[in-house]
Fold this protein.
Amino acid sequence: MTGEGQSLLARLLMPGVAGHEMDDVGQPVSIATEEAALVSAAGEKRRRDFTLGRWCAHAALAQLGGDDGVIGLSKSGAPLWPDGFCGSITHTAGYAAAMVARCADFLGLGVDAERVGGVTQKLWPRLFDADETALLAALSPDLQMRVATILFSAKEACFKAWSPLGAAPQSFRDIHVALRDDGFDAISAAGLLTGRFAVRDDLVLTAASIPAR
Ligand SMILES: CC(C)(COP(=O)(O)OP(=O)(O)OC[C@H]1O[C@@H](n2cnc3c(N)ncnc32)[C@H](O)[C@@H]1OP(=O)(O)O)[C@@H](O)C(=O)NCCC(=O)NCCS
């Protein structure tokens, strides 16, 4: 599961889905005044993350010819997309990405980036069900960290796809993720979601999508 090539996001895209990603090397990025105002009271890191995420989202919308509006912020924290579009935004240390699609093609999208290392064994009981825990327990410590990060990131991506539809479960333990070679199936009371993942060094990126038909 070590990634080759530069673009993680390209490995997760599918027909009808546009995406944009950025490695954050301190380059200048800017967003509309109305969007910047949404986080004007936040600290520097939050404003940088928000700006990188929205920058990526606008670049992705532009690929679909839909970059002519402000991406708002709902009470839940989910982005408010221009009419006719859905999508998802993620940021983690040194990296940001966004995916968008037309609502005619997808009801929901979720994308999530995580650095390997944060999902320690102490967190497993809150995040993983018995089958996932058994899978992790059978792995070597190094692989354990990577797979735990992929499982968790997959659950975050599913949460982001389901949440705007009011379908997200109450607990991460209520989403069961089964990994395949470069993808996953996630099952919860909301139904079955399929997704993909990609890994580059310590960076994990996952995406889940809900097709409209
Ligand atoms: C919201 C959450 C998914 C964000 O994930 P994260 O790994 O912390 O951070 P990321 O950078 O990957 O994602 C942040 C982005 O998620 C998006 N987001 C936030 N809340 C969201 C929601 N309810 N639905 C969809 N997307 C959401 C936003 O675009 C945000 O970026 P922005 O504020 O710059 O626009 C995470 O904080 C979380 O897990 N919250 C709790 C969810 C929960 O209770 N789940 C229970 C069972 S599923």
The CA atoms of residues 121 and 185 lie 23 Å apart. Residues 49-50, 53, 76-79, 88-91, 112-113, 156, 159-160, 163-164, 168-169, 171-172, 175 surround coenzyme A (CB under 6 Å). DSSP finds five helices and ten strands in the chain. The chain has one domain: 9-211.
